[in-house]
Amino acid sequence: MLLASVLGCKRLELFLRFDQPLSASQLSDFRELAKRRAKREPLQHILGEVEFFGLKLRSDRRALIPRFETEELCEISVETLFPDRSANIRILDLGTGSGAIACAFASVYKNADIVAVDKSPDALSLARENAELNSLKNISFMLSDWFDGVDGRFDLIAANPPYLSEADVASAEPEVRNYDPKSALVSADGGIADLRIILSRAPDYLTSGGCIICECGLEQPRKLAEEFKEVFAQIEILPDSSRRTRFFLGKAR
Ligand SMILES: C[S@@+](CC[C@H](N)C(=O)[O-])C[C@H]1O[C@@H](n2cnc3c(N)ncnc32)[C@H](O)[C@@H]1O
């Protein structure tokens, strides 16, 4: 990926150009990038971009690098919750970070009205750039502590909040520990505090029959399903593609 970026070509083209000698300046550029990666700077920050749900998003220190599991959250929503892509729905993305979830939904649901909130002004500035980069016009961005600045009700609320404990982060890979913003990773009470806040307030912001889908840490969906069983009409715990229970889905009464 680094070499392809220096040569300005696609990664697969490297195999066709395998015997091409590098110029002195290409070699020196490549060395600089390799040195940064050797210091465990994430590839996505070095390249400055990441692919998410078929979109190219800018990626830097301002927000969490969007993860594969979060693409799965978007897939579940699009394939099973709201398969009608022309639906005129309201969607709320809580803790939008780079804007990944909001941009993914905006690219699918052209008629939707999408609100994306974060309490980090840095993250919001990156999210706005990503919406612009992908010419997505139906997202409004808002600085807010979860629902505090949010008005009205939504057919779909999606959240990938911080859900790790301090100890989880201390033992994470340097790419995560040193480069993802800590405010995007860590939540109190062993990682579950923000999920509890979001789920307890969600019913006041969902339309009747509306859904909230949250990405969670491994043991959290079961715990939350037990705690919130009286709050939602229906709760499902959904696995990711590695069969780990990662998603909490609550349907409003
Ligand atoms: C795990 S990141 C998710 C980013 C993005 N949605 C994604 O999936 O890649 C969590 C995000 O929640 C934001 N956040 C943390 N606490 C918040 C709060 N109280 N209110 C709003 N956003 C918050 C962080 O700034 C961060 O951008």
Structure commentary:
The protein is an alpha/beta fold and 253 residues long. It folds into 2 domains: 2-39, no CATH class; 64-251, Vaccinia Virus protein VP39 (Rossmann fold, 3-Layer(aba) Sandwich). The chain contains 12 helices and 9 strands. It has helices at residues 2-7, 13-16, 24-38, 43-47, 68-81, 100-108, 121-133, 166-170, 174-177, 182-185, 193-201, 220-227, and strands at residues 49-52, 55-58, 90-94, 113-118, 139-143, 154-159, 206-215, 234-239, 245-251. The strands form 2 sheets. The protein has a 7-stranded mixed beta sheet with strand order 5-4-3-6-7-9-8, with helices on both faces. Strands 1-2 form a two-stranded antiparallel sheet. The protein is globular, with a radius of gyration of 20 Å. The protein starts with a helix and ends with a strand. Bound molecules: S-adenosylmethionine.
Total count of strands: 9
Strand arrangement, major sheet: 5-4-3-6-7-9-8
CATH architecture group name of the largest domain: 3-Layer(aba) Sandwich
Number of helices: 12
Shape: globular
What's the N-to-C terminus distance?
Answer: 48 Å
Report the major sheet: 7 strands, mixed
Summarize the structure.
By secondary structure, the chain is α/β, with parallel strands linked by helices. It is built from twelve helices and nine strands. The strands form two sheets. A seven-stranded mixed β-sheet has the order 5-4-3-6-7-9-8, with helices on both faces. It has a two-stranded antiparallel ribbon with strand order 1-2.
